[in-house]
Design brief:
alpha+beta, 181 residues, single chain, 23% helix, 7-stranded mixed β-sheet, globular
């Protein structure tokens, strides 16, 4: 069994198969997905694909972070559904790290995940502050500030409202992680 990780832009014959692999996990129009995949280049953004015997079985995208010049953001990490749990994701991530360090000359990789924290922890990633790949870093707050208007009103006799649920607005929050190369 021959396994290799290669840049998609140097292997354009896999574009439509790659589009299908990613869209099986995260639905998006083929046109939009192909446009994103076609932006892969020797400089960021770069899509890397995992081939097994010349068949695409995995993908990840490395995107630039405008505020962190020596880092990149890993997105769209996916392994074909029937092949998960067999070490292919680990291989793809390790090869991506080598590519980032040796070819792109980067020092840090960032990512966000929802539910795969254990997988990335095993690869050496640690939790970090949220970052934005669209511009400057903007911290998220875990509490909300409310203005108490009409303080002068007399609310005696009215039942107290129930306490606000903690972090209820953050149920679908992603965990941000990073790894120094």
């Amino acid at each position: 069994m021959e396994l290799k990780v290669v840049p998609l832009h140097l292997n354009k014959k896999y574009l439509s198969e790659c589009c299908k692999l990613i869209n099986d996990e995260w639905k998006r129009s083929d046109t939009a997905r192909l446009r994103s995949l076609e932006s892969s280049s020797d400089t960021l953004p770069t899509s890397l694909i995992l081939l097994r015997n010349e068949e695409i079985i995995g993908h990840l995208k490395l995107s630039p972070i405008p505020s962190i010049k020596d880092g990149c953001f890993v997105e769209s990490v996916v392994i074909e559904k029937g092949l998960r749990g067999k070490g292919f994701g680990r291989l793809l991530m390790e090869k991506a790290e080598e590519y980032c360090k040796n070819f792109l000359q980067l020092k840090t990789i960032y990512l966000s995940t929802k539910g795969q924290e254990g997988f990335y922890n095993k690869l050496g990633y640690i939790e970090c502050q949220p970052i934005s790949i669209y511009g400057n870093y903007m911290p998220l707050t875990s509490t909300m500030n409310f203005k108490h208007e009409n303080k002068a009103k007399n609310w005696e006799g009215a039942p107290k409202p129930p306490p606000l649920p903690t972090n209820s607005f953050n149920i679908n929050a992603k965990t941000y992680m990073r790894k120094e190369l």
